[in-house]
Design brief:
Elements: E1 3-6, E2 14-17, E3 23-27, H1 35-43, H2 50-58, H3 60-71, H4 82-85, H5 88-91, E4 100-105, H6 113-119, E5 123-129, H7 132-140, E6 149-153, E7 170-176, H8 187-197, E8 198-209, H9 214-218, E9 224-226, E10 229-231, E11 237-239, H10 243-252, E12 256-269, E13 274-286
Parallel strand pairs: 4-5, 4-7, 5-6, 7-8
Antiparallel strand pairs: 1-2, 2-3, 3-12, 8-13, 9-10, 10-11, 12-13
Length: 292
Amino acid sequence: MFQEKASANCLNTVTISTEDGAFQKKGHSARVLSPEEAEKLAKDQVLVSEFKQLKLEKEAQKNWDLFYKRNSTNFFKDRHWTTREFQELKACREFADQKLTILEAGCGVGNCLFPLLEEDLNIFAYACDFSPRAVEYVKKNALYSTERCKVFQCDLTKDDLLDNIPADSVDVVTLIFVLSAIHPDKMHLVLRNIYKVLKPGKCVLFRDYGLYDHAMLRFKSSNKLGENFYVRQDGTRSYFFTVEFLSQLFKAAGYEEVVNEYVQRETVNRKEDLRVPRVFLQSKFQKPFSET
């Protein structure tokens, strides 16, 4: 059971203690690095060559398809925390059993999609992914039903969502650990694409990697593509967001900021007696009721 406790030293921070002694903290302040971590990042200034970066961009879909070929549906755990973390999935209803239309942009193999459909029978979901193989895994899932969801392959940076979803028809868009895999120069294209299908006054619910997350600190300099942007050994890429960068990105695409904060938590490995610092951004951005 989580216990919430407001921090006396920082009004925009909430610290949550867990039974295993770990913590979760929300707020607008970035994680403070240790001297050793700061020194490591300061040394990591060598970037991957331009030739290799262009190759990674060209082969992005291929690399994600190979990722799902290797890992099938077994890599990510089902995300049963979504409705707990994003109360908007319930709060945006005008009445209790109102039917919601959602879009999961970047659905992977359905680790978020299917728990949502199981938990809430009054949801119809559009879902899309960059990887054709991931989309096929979703369609083969025993819980998949065309009466409750429509799944399709889509490159959100160039394929028009209006080809599959009516304009201004979606109540909630989830963008969970998706934007970080896209080159920063193309992120705005994703947000503008989503904007077209979202109803005025409705929200994008965002969760992704935050600055100084443990995963960021594990990268070597040979994996650095740019500021806060890295490539994994398998060719897939990951960007680590600041609240400032994300805010500017959404606002430039026409959205209004509702919530935008870091979530800092510890992952505890009791077997190895390790406490690993994780940092995410959890945010909500709204499409205005009227264009200005």
